[in-house]
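Q: Sequence in, structure out?
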Amino acid sequence: MNSDFRKIPIAVIGLGLMGGSFAKRLKELGHPVIGLNRTKSVAEKALALGMVDTIDPGELKKAEIVIFCTPEKGTLSFIREHISLLNEKAVLTDIAGVKNGFAKEVSSLLPEGMDFVSGHPMCGREGAGLLQADGAIFDGANYVLIPEPWNSREHLELIKGMALELGCAHVPVVTAEEHDRAIAYTSDLPHVLATSLMNSASYSEKTKYFIGGSFKDETRVADINEKLWTSLFLANREKLLEEIDRFSGSLQQIRQAIAEGSEEDMTAFLKEAGRRRREMMHHGSC
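A: Exactly. Output:
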């Protein structure tokens, strides 16, 4: 790999919110960026906005890193159909929210010399699409790596280096099982809760007159890419259902304390939540 990491060409496949954010930040950092999107008009928009240097598929041979910001099926389809366009020594990576054997499936399609390092940047924002892209989403974020036995140390370090250069603060390394279990709780479940809160029977056109910071914060991610998140929920179905059940148990616990008028139980419940929140932010701030 090129020793001058800051200047190596990088391709971004899929120029939605996340792909666009990668492209913007990588361009700011001085990388030549090749951008491709299934809908060509989106790629043309990215080019016009200066987010990428080229949208010519013929330029993919120059890319030493290829970042797939596409659903799993889209990533697999692209590799099957366009593998000949890629650099023979390219390191491929993804941002898929569920891992679940995906790396093995991708790697089975790759020729010798090409590698796939699975990753997941733990950042984003509400909305969807290229125009929502913002390179600042990486600042201070966590970028999870999910190595496989066949990944070379050099390639793992390359993707780790890219994550840190993007502005991420931590690059934890976990197994696919650990990743999917944790994500069901910290990512999938909050999106379920935010959308459920907005879809409550209590919602009305007058709700907007009674909201403060807490309601805004708790429903921020309800402005959601519905097709993407439907796919993610179903891909992690069993683990997400377990987390919904666990949350229901926690909700029932405070409901019972309220119903019984137990100040002691309510105070203990709230105190423990506050302690955990402070502990989480102190030891793993992002």
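The two ends are 30 Å apart (CA to CA).
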